[in-house]
């Protein structure tokens, strides 16, 4: 296991329960049993706060840590574009993500890449849970 995955996963700034959330979702990875819950406060189509709770592997924890930091103050439209194209991290169509103009793409690429294809579903669980919460 790569140490950068452990380092990213250890950043638990948004590992919390958001009270009075406007959006919330729970999701489970049927392949491995990882469980994820995301709650958000959205105002004027901008994410004001996000919290997550998970019982999951370190790959899922690293992914949700990065995603939760990126989502703060992001417009729903931009989140929708990013979440719906997240699978491109794992194949040769990575160029599709660059079109979305995500400034922190390199950070995500550290863990979401073809080297971790066997953990693809773990890494995408936070994206799917966020999508479900925002009804994207």
UniProtKB/TrEMBL annotation:
It holds the Pfam family NifU_N. Gene3D superfamilies: 3.90.1010.10. Coiled coil: none annotated. It comes from Pelagibacter ubique. Residues 4-80 form the NIF system FeS cluster assembly NifU N-terminal domain. This is Nitrogen fixation NifU-like protein.
């Amino acid at each position: 296991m790569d140490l950068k995955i452990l380092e990213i996963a250890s950043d638990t700034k948004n590992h919390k329960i958001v009270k009075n959330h406007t959006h919330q979702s729970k999701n489970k990875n049927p392949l491995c049993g990882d469980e994820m819950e995301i709650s958000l406060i959205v105002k004027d189509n901008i994410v004001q706060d996000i919290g997550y709770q998970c019982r999951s592997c370190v790959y899922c924890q690293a992914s949700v840590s990065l995603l939760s930091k990126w989502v703060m103050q992001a417009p729903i439209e931009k989140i929708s574009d990013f979440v719906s194209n997240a699978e491109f991290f794992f194949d040769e169509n990575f160029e599709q993500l660059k079109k979305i103009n995500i400034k922190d793409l390199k950070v995500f690429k550290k863990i979401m890449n073809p080297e971790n294809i066997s953990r693809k579903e773990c890494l995408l669980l936070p994206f799917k849970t966020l999508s479900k919460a925002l009804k994207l």
